């Protein structure tokens, strides 16, 4: 449209979105000691802090990724709101993850559990995580 009345408002809107506090996980919904170990996996061999950077646990810059970068088909991406700009998926913020768990996990909700997501990334990026590391990583994600 001419004149563009939207573009100048996008940066402040993004800042506002990132400033909102995510809901805290309910008491007793994760194992604290395992979550602490899982944080070390997340930041180390799990390599997830490369995309989901603390403290917001999302990409700090350009956070749109192609399905091929994440070892998935583009079926959902092609049908989503970003499909029109090249079938990209946006790195979601992980804080408050438990509040969104009813609709599935991953960028497009295709995995029913966090362990399914972890197994996918383990296979996709050849991480070779042990079952214990995966379990601890699930607890860490539940703690965000």
List the helices and strands and how they pair.
Blueprint: H1 7-19, H2 32-43, E1 64-65, H3 75-79, E2 89-90, H4 114-124, H5 131-143
Antiparallel strand pairs: 1-2
Helix pairs in contact: 2-5, 4-5
Low-confidence stretches: none
| Average predicted confidence as pLDDT | 82
Number of strands: 2
- Cα separation of the termini: 40 Å
* Integer-rounded radius of gyration: 16 Å
Query: For the report, how would you describe the main beta sheet?
Result: 2 strands, antiparallel
- Helix content bin: 25-40%
Briefly note the structural class of the backbone. Answer: mainly alpha
Q: Widest sheet: strand order?
A: 1-2
The string of secondary-structure elements, in order, is HHEHEHH
The number of helical segments is 5
In percent, how much strand structure appears in the residues?
Answer: under 5%
Task: Indicate the overall shape.
Answer: globular
């Amino acid at each position: 449209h001419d004149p563009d009345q939207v573009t100048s408002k996008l940066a402040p809107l993004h800042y506002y979105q990132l400033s909102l506090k995510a809901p805290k996980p309910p008491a007793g919904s994760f194992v604290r000691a395992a979550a602490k170990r899982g944080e070390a996996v997340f930041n180390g061999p799990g390599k997830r802090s490369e995309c989901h950077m603390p403290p917001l646990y999302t990409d700090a810059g350009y956070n749109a990724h192609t399905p091929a970068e994440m070892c998935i088909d583009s079926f959902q991406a092609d049908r989503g709101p970003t499909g029109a700009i090249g079938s990209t998926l946006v790195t979601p913020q992980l804080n408050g993850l438990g509040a969104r768990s009813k609709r599935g996990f991953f960028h497009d909700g295709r995995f029913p559990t966090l362990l399914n997501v972890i197994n996918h990334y383990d296979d996709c990026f050849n991480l070779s995580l042990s079952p214990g590391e995966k379990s601890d990583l699930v607890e860490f994600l539940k703690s965000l």
